[in-house]
Design a protein that fits this description.
It contains 3 helices and 5 strands, in the order E-H-H-E-H-E-E-E. It starts with a strand and ends with a strand. It is an alpha+beta fold. It is globular.
C-alpha cells in the first residue's frame, strides 16, 4: 500500500529560499534531519490532487500545511517529494545522484 508523509518544519528559523538552497547543497535527507520534525504518515490507495487536495491533507493529518512543508508519496520502490511554496503550489524536489 502507498504512503503519504507530511514533513512539517521544526522551530529552526530559515528563510524559504535558503531552505531550497540547503536542499541543493546538502541534499534532501540531511535537510529533513536538520529542519523538519518526524513526518505524519497515512496509507492511501489513491488521491485526487486537484483544488481540494490541500483541504484533504489538512483534514487527513489534522494540521495546517504551510509554505516549506514537504509532502512525500511512497509507493513500492518509488518516492516523490514536493515542497509547498509561498504561491500555494507544490514544487517537485528532484533527488539527484
Amino acid at each position: 500500500m502507498a504512503k503519504i508523509r507530511v514533513y512539517k518544519r521544526n522551530s529552526t528559523f530559515i528563510d524559504l529560499s535558503d531552505l531550497v538552497e540547503q536542499i541543493g547543497n546538502i541534499g534532501l535527507a540531511e535537510t529533513l534531519k536538520k529542519y523538519y520534525n518526524q513526518p505524519f504518515e497515512h496509507e492511501a490507495r489513491s488521491i485526487v490532487a486537484g483544488p481540494s487536495f490541500m483541504q484533504y491533507l489538512n483534514r487527513l493529518f489534522k494540521t495546517q500545511i504551510a509554505a516549506g512543508d514537504i509532502l512525500q508519496f511512497e509507493s513500492g520502490d518509488h518516492d516523490k517529494y514536493f515542497m509547498f511554496s509561498l504561491t500555494g503550489t507544490w514544487d517537485e524536489i528532484i533527488r539527484l545522484q
